[in-house]
Each structure stands twice: as structure tokens, then as C-alpha cells.
Design brief:
Chain lengths: 631, 365
């Protein structure tokens, strides 16, 4: 067979294959390669010539034209590379690799205290990490660069594919290749029915099976039906990729306009949603803090339950905060917030984050006047709720009547235990034996210095620790209802009773709905894309050498699914009542590669038919590539 | 609070797990016998089989010139007596290589052992399944609250997938030995290292999404594993076929095992179908997790290590699917990606619970 006919055949088959997937898979592959080679090769061949063709004319105008051509050429080349499947694949791969460090190195945005701790322990390393933004991988420049490139690639890939697909939907199913027996699934038989009859029957049959079917002429010698089905696969694939883009946009929108704040509320106290009430607050750059929704709530009661079974001692089984909240209009309602069921007020959500104990303390000063009274939240340090906290008494006067300040710091243990190794600690999270263990200081709390102070830390740099009569540092344990006389007539401290507190997170986020809708459409699109088959079926009928009608059927799918030949078999069975099988002589047994092909499509007449095994070193770029991939 | 009934059930569950391990061990022996007898019957035929394979492979290799149109007798085409439907895949070089006869290698005795092994596997699965059900009743929640339960459920899914594929009349008996072996190892690990008394869940885990997200993750894991075994065997068989085609000497043991496996084309297709079917489910699993996280922690995505590795697993499989559609990447490279994807899943499931500081540290090791 001559090169020419081979080329012909290949082109013929490529036409039948074309656009079966809207993927730019192999078609662009070759194109890119040549173009990729073209560039540098051009440079080498002739220093004066442009990489993308055309000589550089002398003079400024020539240089300008050359530069423009070059820039455009390289830009196009770069764009083609970026939107190729291969580069998309590499970018995906990089994305997976780039995600790894963030799971190994503590992240500021995920667990800030852990990251701080890591920094403190590995100073030298942290410097390097800092430089590469390894404490904030997922918003680092390099991570963003990868996914932005990926999404540009995705857009550059999806948009032309969508147009191409729409074009296919408006066009007709592509005509059959001349040699149907080279398609992945093929069948043929002989019948007494007229070719025209068979063609008509085939078209009706295919239409009934919801194929898009179209009659095509094979020149004077015959005709065939070209049919295609499974467009939903392509729709699904496009929906999936588009949904990924929407998802990213929703994610970005969420980052820009979120607000998130925390508030610790002691039983019986309340919160209203204004900035100054928050313990901590952060928001995206597009969030307007003046736009915080007007609402508030009061924590009526907090319930917690812990397992007392031996095997999971102390594991929480229930947290519930009973609250009364009011909205914009001021209507009050009762509700309860649990760990998995936040309270929705307007666009905000109030979520239960944590809980702990707040001993109610009162302190009288050296004059016997009440200097402090209130619940003091202690922060849990372990699962048994051993908690730490501080009490700051700033409006206080000493035994001599001079203004002074008192500070206490220590532990609260709901179920107190003392051992040499751990000191005072709790063994169970419920208040079976609630004990407050404190040290006392006097001096300057530093609260008037104007610097913001952490209410849970005591700055003892300007303070002096109190001592008892024997000169030892003062340290005392109190049960609820007990008090202690502070030494040197400095007054008393009373542990009046125990309250609970709960901490809440108040968030607003936009884009959640978009993220949800797009991710769910991604799943649906993906399922369609991976589970449906897009395939083409051709039925050709012509008068054979023996005067009988030869029926040929072939089908081609994008993936090599076992269902496609099965479907072809079913279609053939469906066609047989209209084209009954007649026995044939063994020399032309069906299913052999040497089966003579039909009268052929355009331009095939030049070729001897069926006399030799068709040769094809590479039938399609795809299969050639498959071989190339083998080591 | 766990009632006395619950404790009784938990004990029953443990007994059932041990019983299933015994039956799995018997199934393992029977599968081994199938392979050994298969190879015994092959010993005399190894050389012949090898040359036959070579011949076939040459036919396959030459098919690059002469189109390899193979007639799959009795395959998917048996719907029609005549005319036959002829199929051809897109990697013609290996098209002509037929699937191997299976573990028993056509040996009658071996086949009998294979059937016994399947029956034992069904029995073991029944025990395994009852164990999981008993555990569920004992703890009054989903049986996936800690790593012990997760591992038990995971290997149950693996066996279940195997049996479903068998019931669907797919040619997968060759999977029996590797799957039962790993199921045994997994159960051994579960009872010896990961065992945790039935315990309650912390409130954060008490959600309807627990019933959607976690079981789906387990099912995906089981299926990814079966896919990865397919890809692994594909790599071996592909190397073997390449060696045979190139005339390189292959060790007889290797040849005997490889000869009985399906062809590389079939193995690749097998792995692809499983992974392609699981990928949308895995995507949904992650989304379900995100919805849950939104309810429990106030953000649907926070780059917690567990989330990161779920994402990496997802991207790895997306890579695999793309690789199969990209020239120069299909075949071996794609198979490596599928295996890497499953390893990412394992890291997410074992690694993150044990080594990472994660909100998801419900591990209970
Ligand atoms: C954000 C990351 C991406 C993900 C997770 C993703 C995922 C997927 C999946 C799962 C498939 C189905 C594969 C199959 O049909 O076997 C697919 C197909 C495809 N993707 Fe992507 N994709 C991504 C990005 C891209 C990009 C950037 C491009 C453009 C270069 C692209 C182009 C394609 C094409 C052309 C197909 C069709 C392949 C076929 O029909 O077999 N994808 N993608």
C-alpha cells in the first residue's frame, strides 16, 4: 500500500474519530510538539529569521514587526502549552505535592498555638520556613501560583471545549470511515433485503434507541447511517470542570467577606453583636465591621455530661447551651445550641466551641469593703478540665488605706486530686470535688499602663508574692463557700459558688451556598462524565459481489467499555428482522480482518479493495502513544 | 452508657471477629492450594505456555502492522451467535494477549480448592458482617468510632466488594488470595494493636453526617484498595508481557503466576473501572465531610491534616483519570498514580490519626 493511501485512510479514520471526546487530548499533542520544535529549531537555522517564521527586515519598523510576531508567537505557544492536558496533569500533580508540607508543619491558620510553639522550639528552622511561607502554605505565593495556573489552564481548556461541543450538537454525526471493520466493535452479515430498506430500518432503529442518527451517502455505490449517543457524558464533564471554577470563586469570596469572632459567656450573662463585645475578632478584607447584624443572646444554662464508664471515663457525651436570643426586631426566643447544631440568626451563625468553669469570687479589701465580686472564667488545660485562671483586683486599698492592687493566679480542679508529680489537678470534668488553688500577689497589675492586657495572664513583674505567717509563699485551697483571710490584714477572698461558662464562635460567611451548589453539581457532572459512554454507531449496506446486500455495523466509544460491543450486538439483533441473515460461504466469514470493506467513502476508489491486509503502522495518534508509553 | 446487653453484644462481636479470622485463614489456605495446584499442573506445561504466550505476543506485536482484530469467543459478544461482534481495544500491541486461565491454571483439583476458598470466604464474610452488626448494636452508633472499628469495617468492605464482583460473574477469582491475605493482616492488626473497648463518641462526632461521610469513606477505601491491587498486578503482568515479547528470560515461578492472571489490558481496564466508579463517590464523601465540618466547626474547609490528605487523595485520583486521557501517561505511569492515590488514602486514615495533630484525632490508638 502506498504512503498516499495510508495517509488517506488515516485521515478518513481520524474524521470518524474526531471530537468523540471534546478533549484536546491527542490532536493538539502533535500540533504542540511540532510547534514546540519549530520555535527553537527556527532560531538555530537562521539567526535572522523569527522563531515563528518571517525574516527580520532591516530598520526599526522591521524590528518592531519582528518583535510583535515573536511575542505573539511565543504567547500563543505558551498558551497552548498551558491549556494542554499534559500541563494540566503536571499542575494537578504539583498541587498534590504542594499540599503535603502544610499537613506536616503546623499552620498559623489551622492551629496558631501549635505553630507558635514550633517556632519557639526551632528558631533557626523557623526562619527558613518563614521565608518560604511554610507556616501558611495554603495562602502562600507558590501554592496560589499553582492553583491559579491550574485554573487558568482549566478555563483555557473548558471554554473552547464548550464551543466545540455546542458546534457538535448543531452539526451532524460524523460520517463512517471507509473501513468499518477497523473500528473497535464490528459486525457484518449478508441479507436478501435491499440496501435502501436496511438503511431505513437502521435509521429508525437507532432513532428509537435515542441515537442522533443521520443518513449519509457513500457516493453512487451506497449509503450509511451515522449515529451518535451519550452527549450527556460531555455535558457532565463540562459541568464538572465549570463547577470547579465556581467553587474556587465561592471559596475566594468566602475568604474575602467572612467575619469570625469568639466570645466567652458566663452562665446568666449575655452578648450583643458589636465589635467591642468580642474577645477576639477577625474578618476578610471586604467585610465591613459596621455591618455586624444587630442581635444578641443570653446564656441561661449550660449542660454537659461526661461518661463515667471505666473505658471512656471523662469522655463528653453532651454539651448544650440553653440561650435566649433576640434579633433585629427585638423579638426574643429560646433556643439551644449544641456542638453540631449552631444557632442561625440572620446571616450569622452562633456555634458552641468550648466550655469551662467560672468560680464566683469576692474579695474584700483591708478596710473591709467589697473590692471585687464576680465569676472568673478559668480556662481548661486538659480533658479532665484542670483549669488555670487569674483574678485581678484593681480597685483595692491595703490595710493602711493606701491604694494597692491584688492578683491571684492558680488552678481550678472540678474533681481535685493532688500528687507529687502533677501537683493539684483534676481527675474528672464534673465538679465532684471542686477546689480552687491560688497564689496571691500584690503590687502593680499593670492594667493602668494603657497596654492591652490578657485577662487570663498575670504580669507579676511589678508585684510581690504574699507570704503566710511562717514566711512561706502563700498558697491556699478553697472549696465553694469557703473563704480565706489574707495575711497582714489584707482582707478576705471568698469562693462563693461555681458557675459554668461556654464560649461561642459567631461567624458570617457568604459564598457558602455557591460552594455547596457548585460542589454538588461537580459530583453530578463527574458521575455523568465517568459513568456514561459517548459512542458512535455506523450501519452501512451495499450490494456485495454475489448480488446480496452486505450489512456492516461498527461502533466506537471514547473508552473501551465492554458495553459498547454489547450494545452493537443488541442493535444488530434489532436490525435482523429487517435484514434477515443468509448463510454465506466460508471464505468471507465475518469477523476476520480481511473482510472486504464497503464501497467506501469519498476518494477511496483509487484503492484495491480487500485484497491485502490493511497495514497501518499507527492507526491513530492515541494508540501509537499507548505503545510509546511502554518501556 | 453501655448496658449489660451492650457488653454482651460487644463480646459476641469480638468472638465473631475471631471466628471470621479463623475462616479467613482457612480460605487463605484453600486459595494458596488453588495457586499451588495450578502451578503443579502448569509445571509440565510452563515451557509450552511460555512459547504459546510468546507466539501470541508476537501476533500482538505484529498487529501494529496487521490490525489485531480479535474474536472474543464467548465474551461479551456471545449475545449473538452469528454474526459475531468483533472488538479491539485502543492498545493494539497487547490486544492479542488473552486472559490467563485463573489461579487454578485449569487444574481440576486446583479449581475445586478455589471453589472451596470462595465458599469459605462467603462464610468468613458472613461472620465478619455479623461482628460489625453486633458491634453496632453494642455501641448504639455507627461501627466506625475509632480505628479498631474503622479497620474492621474497612476489611469487611474489601471482602464484600470481592464477593459482589464474583456474584456479578466477573472474572476476579485471581483477586482472592491477595485480598484475603490483606484482610487477615488488617483484622490481625485491628485486634492486636488497635483494639478499643466499645466507647461513646464525643459530641462533635454525633451527627447525621457521621452516618454519611464515614461509611462512604470506608466504602471508597475498600474499593480504592481493590483498584490498587488491580493496578499493582497490572504493573507486574505488563512487565512480564514486555519481557516475554522481548524474549527476556522470566523466572519460572513468576511466569507461572503471571500466566494465570488476566492480560495487562484487562487488568488495566479492571483497575480503571473501579477507580472511575469510586471517584465521584469519593468526591461526594469529601463534600459531605465539608458540610459536617461547617456544622461542627464553623468552616467547611480548614486545611486540617485530615482534610489536606483527603484533598491530596482526591487530586491523585484526578491525576490518574487525566493521565489515562493523556498520551505518554497512560499505562504504567497512570497505574503508579492510582497506587499513589491509594497510599494517600492510607496515610490519611492511619498516618493522620497517629502522627498528626488533627481535629480528627478520634483515633483512640
Ligand atoms: C482542577 C483540577 C481538575 C480536575 C480535578 C479534573 C478532573 C477531571 C476528571 C475527573 C475527568 C474525567 C476523566 C475521564 O473522563 O476519564 C476530567 C476530564 C478531563 N479534564 Fe479535567 N480536571 C481538572 C483540571 C483540568 C484542566 C486544567 C484541564 C485542561 C487542560 C482539564 C481537562 C480535561 C479534559 C479535556 C478532560 C476530558 C478527558 C476525557 O474525555 O477523557 N481538566 N477532568
Amino acid at each position: 500500500m502506498t504512503d498516499d493511501t495510508q495517509t488517506h485512510e488515516r485521515a478518513d479514520e481520524a474524521r470518524a474519530l474526531a471530537g468523540l471526546s471534546t478533549a484536546p487530548v491527542e490532536e493538539t499533542e502533535g500540533a504542540e510538539e511540532t510547534e514546540g520544535v519549530e520555535g527553537p529549531a527556527g532560531v538555530r537555522a537562521d539567526a535572522g529569521a523569527g522563531t515563528f517564521g518571517g525574516r527580520r527586515e532591516p530598520g526599526a519598523r522591521g524590528a518592531l514587526a519582528w518583535l510583535g510576531r515573536e511575542t505573539a508567537g511565543w504567547a500563543r505557544w505558551f498558551w497552548r502549552q498551558l491549556t494542554s492536558m499534559r500541563v494540566a496533569l503536571i499542575l494537578l500533580f504539583l498541587l498534590a505535592l504542594a499540599s503535603i508540607p502544610g499537613s506536616l508543619i503546623p499552620q498559623d491558620t489551622v492551629d496558631a498555638p501549635l505553630a507558635e510553639d514550633f517556632r519557639a522550639r526551632n528558631e533557626a528552622l523557623s526562619g527558613v520556613y518563614e521565608k518560604f511561607q511554610l507556616f501558611d502554605v495554603y495562602s502562600s505565593v507558590w501554592f496560589s501560583a499553582i492553583y491559579l495556573m491550574l485554573f487558568i489552564s482549566l478555563i483555557g481548556c473548558i471554554v473552547p471545549r464548550t464551543w466545540q461541543f455546542i458546534g457538535q450538537l448543531r452539526g451532524r454525526p460524523p460520517r463512517a470511515p471507509r473501513r468499518l471493520n477497523r473500528m473497535p466493535a464490528y459486525t457484518t452479515w449478508r441479507t436478501e433485503a435491499e440496501p435502501e430498506q436496511v438503511i431505513d430500518a437502521a435509521r429508525r432503529l437507532l432513532k428509537r434507541r435515542r441515537f442522533r442518527a443521520d443518513r449519509r451517502e457513500d457516493g453512487p455505490a451506497g449509503a450509511h447511517v451515522a449515529a451518535e449517543k451519550g452527549y450527556l457524558r460531555e455535558v457532565g464533564n463540562l459541568v464538572f470542570h465549570l463547577a470547579l471554577i465556581v467553587m474556587l470563586v465561592a471559596f475566594a469570596a468566602g475568604r474575602l467577606s467572612y467575619s469570625e469572632g469568639g466570645k466567652l459567656v458566663v452562665q446568666g450573662e449575655g452578648f450583643s453583636n458589636i465589635l467591642t463585645q468580642y474577645d477576639d475578632f477577625e474578618s476578610g478584607t471586604m467585610f465591613d465591621v459596621d455591618q455586624l447584624e444587630p442581635f444578641g443572646f443570653r446564656l441561661n444554662e449550660f449542660h454537659s455530661n461526661f461518661s463515667r464508664d471505666e473505658i471512656d471515663m471523662g469522655t463528653a457525651t453532651q454539651f448544650r447551651a440553653d440561650v435566649t436570643y433576640w434579633d433585629e426586631e427585638g423579638t426574643e426566643r429560646d433556643s439551644s445550641i449544641e456542638v453540631n447544631s449552631p444557632l442561625h440568626i440572620g446571616d450569622s451563625r452562633v456555634r458552641l466551641l468550648g466550655h469551662g468553669y467560672a468560680p464566683v469570687i469576692s474579695v474584700t479589701d483591708g478596710q473591709g469593703d467589697l473590692a471585687f465580686r464576680g465569676p472568673v472564667p478559668f480556662l481548661p488545660q486538659d480533658k479532665a478540665l484542670t483549669s488555670t485562671g487569674v483574678i485581678k483586683v484593681s480597685a483595692y486599698s491595703g490595710p493602711d488605706g493606701e491604694p494597692d492592687q491584688l492578683g491571684f493566679q492558680g488552678f481550678f480542679s472540678p474533681t481535685f486530686n493532688l500528687d507529687a508529680e502533677r501537683g493539684p489537678h483534676s481527675t474528672f470534668p464534673e465538679p465532684d470535688l471542686p477546689v480552687l488553688t491560688l497564689n496571691a500577689f500584690h503590687g502593680d497589675l499593670g492594667v493602668n499602663a494603657g497596654l492591652p492586657q490578657n485577662v487570663y495572664q498575670l504580669d507579676t513583674s511589678d508585684m510581690e508574692q504574699l507570704r503566710d505567717e511562717s514566711g512561706d509563699l502563700l498558697r491556699f485551697n478553697l472549696l465553694p463557700g469557703e473563704s480565706i483571710e489574707l495575711p497582714d490584714g489584707r482582707g478576705t477572698l471568698t469562693f462563693e459558688r461555681l458557675d459554668q461558662w461556654a464560649s461561642f464562635q459567631i461567624t458570617t460567611k457568604s459564598g457558602n451556598m455557591w460552594a455547596l451548589v457548585s460542589s454538588l453539581s461537580a459530583v453530578v457532572g463527574l458521575a455523568a462524565s465517568l459513568l456514561l459512554q459517548r459512542r458512535r454507531v455506523w450501519v452501512r449496506a451495499f450490494t456485495g459481489d454475489d448480488g446480496r446486500t452486505v450489512v456492516e455495523m461498527a461502533s466506537l466509544g471514547r473508552t473501551e467499555s465492554g458495553k459498547i460491543p454489547e450494545e452493537l450486538a443488541a442493535l444488530a439483533a434489532g436490525l435482523r428482522p429487517d435484514a434477515p441473515l443468509v448463510p454465506q460461504d466460508p471464505t468471507t466469514a465475518p469477523g476476520t480482518p480481511e473482510e472486504p470493506a464497503g464501497p467506501g467513502a469519498s476518494g477511496a476508489s483509487a484503492q484495491p479493495e480487500g485484497s491485502e491486509p490493511p497495514a497501518e503502522p499507527a492507526e491513530s495518534a492515541e494508540s501509537a502513544a499507548a505503545e510509546g508509553a511502554r518501556p | 452508657m453501655i448496658l449489660a446487653v451492650g457488653e454482651g453484644l460487644a463480646d459476641l462481636s469480638n468472638t465473631l471477629v475471631y471466628s471470621s479470622m479463623v475462616v479467613y485463614a482457612l480460605a487463605f489456605l484453600a486459595f494458596t492450594a488453588e495457586w499451588i495446584l495450578g502451578s503443579r499442573s502448569k509445571v509440565a506445561r510452563t515451557a509450552a505456555a511460555l512459547t504459546a504466550a510468546e507466539g501470541e505476543d508476537e501476533a500482538g506485536a505484529s498487529s501494529a502492522q496487521a490490525p489485531a482484530v480479535i474474536v472474543r469467543k464467548g465474551g461479551s459478544t456471545s449475545v449473538l451467535e452469528r454474526p459475531k461482534v468483533v472488538t479491539r481495544s485502543s492498545s493494539p500491541a497487547r490486544d492479542a494477549v488473552p486472559d490467563g486461565p485463573g489461579a487454578s491454571g485449569g487444574d481440576v483439583q486446583g479449581d475445586t480448592y478455589g471453589r472451596i476458598a470462595i465458599s469459605l470466604t462467603v462464610l468468613a464474610f458472613a461472620l465478619h458482617f455479623s461482628a460489625v452488626v453486633a458491634r453496632t448494636l453494642a455501641v448504639e452508633r455507627g461501627p466506625w468510632g475509632n480505628m479498631y472499628e474503622f479497620s474492621t469495617a474497612f476489611s469487611m468492605v474489601v471482602t464484600g466488594v470481592f464477593l459482589v464482583l464474583l456474584a456479578a460473574r466477573m472474572n476476579v477469582r485471581w483477586l482472592g488470595l491477595p485480598l484475603v491475605t490483606t484482610v487477615l493482616l488488617d483484622l490481625g492488626l485491628a485486634v492486636a494493636v488497635l483494639y478499643t473497648e466499645s466507647a461513646q463518641l464525643v459530641p462533635a462526632l454525633d451527627s447525621i453526617w457521621m452516618w454519611i461521610h464515614v461509611p462512604l469513606a470506608i466504602v471508597c477505601g475498600g474499593l480504592f484498595y481493590v483498584g490498587a491491587v488491580g493496578s499493582g498486578l497490572f504493573l507486574l503482568r505488563d512487565r512480564y508481557e514486555a519481557n516475554v515479547a522481548a524474549g527476556t528470560a522470566v523466572r519460572p515461578l513468576m511466569a507461572s503466576v503471571m500466566e494465570r492472571l488476566p492480560s495487562s489490558v484487562s487488568l488495566d481496564k479492571f483497575a480503571y473501572r473501579i477507580n472511575a466508579a469510586v471517584f465521584p463517590v469519593w468526591t461526594f464523601t469529601i463534600i459531605a465531610g465539608a458540610i459536617w465540618a461547617e456544622n461542627a466547626w464553623g468552616r467547611y474547609w480548614g486545611w486540617d491534616p485530615k482534610e489536606v490528605w483527603a484533598f491530596i487523595t482526591w487530586v491523585a485520583f484526578a491525576c490518574y483519570l487525566h493521565a489515562r486521557a493523556t498520551a505518554g501517561w497512560k499505562g504504567r505511569k497512570a497505574a503508579y498514580l492510582a497506587i499513589a492515590g491509594f497510599l494517600c488514602f492510607l496515610i490519611n486514615y492511619y498516618g493522620v490519626n497517629i502522627f498528626f495533630d488533627s481535629l480528627h484525632s478520634y483515633g483512640g490508638v
